[in-house]
Amino acid sequence: MTEALPKLPVLAVEDSPFSRRLLEHALSGDSYSLLFAENGKEALHLFKERRPAIVITDWMLPDCSGPELCQRIRADSSDSYTYIILLTSMTEKEDIVKGLSSGADDYLTKPFDRGELLARIGVGRRIIDLHREIDAKNKLLEEMAHTDSLTGLPNRRAIEEWANRQLRGAARHGYSLWVVHADLDNFKIINDSHGHDAGDEVLRGFATILKENTRASDISGRMGGDEFLVVLTHAQEDQIQLTVERLRARLALKKFTFGGESISVTASFGACGFQGKKPPELSDLVQQADKALYCAKRMGRNQIRIEPFSVSIA
Prior knowledge:
The longest helix is centred in the middle third of the chain and has 32 residues, at 114-145. It contains 10 helices and 13 strands. By secondary structure, it is of the alpha/beta class. Helices cover 47% and strands 23% of the residues. The mean pLDDT is 89.
């Protein structure tokens, strides 16, 4: 049994009651969900509110022309593609060229044949479906480009893009931003003793801890290797200490079993913060957090080192 296609939303812009009835008759059934507008203003309002996939518009409207409406719709439909069909009684080539140049995808001369109208809308539906498929694939590719394939966490590119936006917001609105650099302790020994699959399991295990303990307003991700970065906003130094301590303790308590042997893994953390009117470069904050991290390593690992809060008044 073939699954029925979902109804396609269609906006018909027509001030003639007779033409509206013809369109309603032609598009009646289970395939289309029909909206009507009598002028350009009403059409734009419905378009913004309902986002129809296909627009059928008369050339002559009370407050604007069909080509003008096409241009306005095109200017307001950057998020998804809309297929536009012009209905016109004009058959001169220059008029048709003008209509297509304004942003229409197709045209149909009045009086139209129901079968031809349905065929042209069918073409529009296939193009809309193609655009949606391309948009979905592009979205997936974008997500893949911003995701670490091993852990599922945001990757370095995603962290940097997000953190740079937050830095500008922190400077503009006066809230704090913290960068926490984490590095697994003695990770090379795990790979050498138990193999790279074991190392991958440890990375995924720490990633799970980060996911479960990162607020929606913050971000945690993998920078590469066994290095991770957490960026937190709207937090004071005592909150940072508690947050990072929670991460450190949960990893230290977690047990990994490889070849019948149960082992514990720890991580060291370095953090630095910013609050002020002039945002620093993210790379400078990461470098400061990195210095704090290696100070924690020198202090014996499985440690947290927080740099003094940086306040910019410039």
